[in-house]
Amino acid sequence: MEEARNAEGYMAGLPVLTIGKYTPKYPIIQGGMGIRVSASSLAGAVAKAGGIGTIASVELGISSRFFNGKNHAEANRLALADELATARKTAPDGILAVNNMVALTDYEDMVRTSAECGAQVIISGAGLPMQLPEFTKDHPDVALVPIVSSVKAARLIIKKWEKLYHRLPDAIIVEDPGKAGGHLGAKIEDVYSPEMSLEVVVPELVEFLDKELKVDIPVVAAGGIWDRTDMLWAFSLGARGVQMGTRFVCTHECDAADEFKQKYIKCTPEDISLIKSPVGLPGRAIRTEFTDKLKDGPPKDHKCRAVCLKHCSFKTEKTAFCINIALSNAHKGDVEHGLVFCGTNAYRSTGIVSVNDIFEELFQPKKAVAPA
Question: Which end of the chain has fewer surrounding CB within 10 Å, N or C?
Fold first, then answer.
């Protein structure tokens, strides 16, 4: 009885995050991380624990049993359907999301597959998801959540969705490019701009939605959220939920290879830096032999194998590198020949824990188990 009362006190004051028809037990979304860093194992575990588990749809097929070397688009669709079904077995009553990147050539196909195969929430960034409601119109129960880095971007999306589809976002994720991992929604010179920080954008967006539009759209803070202190700080800004990606990498359930996780555990703050992605956006990654050699020019052994991006400087100009190969190498464990995306807090990883350990630390009265 005493433990139950303590738990209630620990949870007291936390916001309720309702996205469309879905309300997770805890106001947390696990960030989508590709390629196959967040697939069915991690997403299912987070959903089972009471958060929103997210599968990153980007290039799921390339290293799946469905790929025969030629059927790139088909393999991606089949692999996404399979990952959703597997995650659902882990979390029959949980909330599952799919993160779909606008920058992908098969964006529409993957969005439609997400909705058709049971995703309850679709999260979309790496570009403005202007047509997202069109691609999901036959699945009105699927919640739609764009990722933005500014109020200006949110305004554009809302205006377009209202005009063409008579629909509003079910939530909006604000990503701080100064702290987030992977591809960042800002020009490289603007990544660390104070105007794009959570402490500026979240309150501005909350005020815009509440006071100007007078609509009830929850704002979710992403980028640099690591522990309970960070989470409560985000809530103090007006966010009703947080998205955490980097924190979930060093878990037993994360779908990446152990070598990938060890790069997080062994890295220092100085090992984390920005790279120029062939997508045309900056990305944040841990230093590897691969990133060091990028200073000397594009890798000679890379060839475009999937035509996965709408705009790719490697495909069109043979500059940069094949991000498909780089991310695939890393998730499979060949980290020194790959790209290990991360947020600025990656160095805070000290060992491998379980997803439940993280939820216990964030939301329960007793501390999480020490890392293995």
Answer: N
Q: Is the pTM of this model over 0.90?
A: yes
CATH of the domain at 154: 3.20.20.70
Beta bridge partners of residue 340, listed in sequence order:
286
| Inter-CA distances, 160 with 105, 146, 149, 197, Å | 22, 13, 17, 25
Selected residue with higher pLDDT from 293 and 242: 242
Q: Do the beta carbons of residue 68 and residue 75 sit within 8 Å?
A: yes
> Does residue 333 lie within any of the structural domains?
yes
CA distances from 243 to 15, 230, 286 (A): 14, 11, 20
Reply yes or no on whether the pLDDT at 282 is more than 70: yes
- Domain total for the chain? 2
Whole-number pLDDT of residue 310: 66
Q: Provide φ and ψ at 304, rounded to 5°.
A: -65, 120
Shared domain for 239 and 273, answered yes or no, is: no
Pairing status of strand 241-244 against strand 28-30: parallel
For residue 287, give its domain range.
259-341
Q: Does one domain contain both 45 and 173? A: yes
Q: Are 32 and 87 in contact (CB under 8 A)?
A: no
